[in-house]
Write a structure and sequence with these properties.
It is built from three helices and ten strands, in the order E-H-E-H-E-E-E-E-E-H-E-E-E. By secondary structure, it is an alpha+beta fold. It has a four-stranded mixed beta sheet, with helices on one face. Strands 7-10-9-8 form a four-stranded mixed beta sheet, with helices on one face. Strands 3-4 form a two-stranded antiparallel sheet. It starts with 7 loop residues before the first strand and ends with a strand.
């Protein structure tokens, strides 16, 4: 069996704000889909109301992804072919604990500094955990999605 390509999709009230936060948190790039959007608009397949301006270029109103800067991507549409997070607008707010979360691994001895950097980006500390198997900080992104910093 061939390994499958995947992306992690995260529901969001404001996909562009979430993408900006996570791009900064991870050192990722916000994908540029403007060439694809322009082609689809020109062909009449989509309408302007499905787009917004973000980072000085046309973007999808309800979808935006971030990708690892070293991973390949399709130049004609900006879609990453490697490690990606896709944020999609949903009408309902977050209602409970995540069933899936990201663990961010700081360099040795740098967890506290990384937690402080992420707080400056808009994250909040929920709690610190110290157990026989390890130590980490549980945080929440600007929309309340939990993640851990080890």
């Amino acid at each position: 069996m061939t390994a499958l390509h995947w992306k992690l999709v995260i529901d969001a009230a404001d996909p562009h704000a979430q993408a900006d936060f996570w791009a900064e948190a991870l050192g990722y790039l916000v994908e540029d889909n403007s060439a694809q959007i322009d082609r689809l608009l020109s062909a009449g397949y989509v309408t302007e109301d499905l787009t917004v301006e973000a980072h000085g270029r046309r973007a999808w109103r309800d979808l935006v992804a971030v990708r690892h800067p070293d991973d390949p991507y399709q130049e004609d549409n900006g879609i990453g072919l490697g490690r990606r997070l896709l944020f999609q607008r949903v009408p309902e707010p977050k209602s409970g604990k995540n069933r899936l979360h990201l663990d961010l691994h700081a360099s040795s001895g740098r967890r506290d500094a990384e937690v402080a950097r992420l707080e400056a980006c808009g994250a909040s500390v929920l709690r610190h955990v110290k157990e026989p198997g390890g130590e980490w900080t549980v945080m929440a992104d600007p929309e309340g999605n939990e993640f851990c910093v080890q």
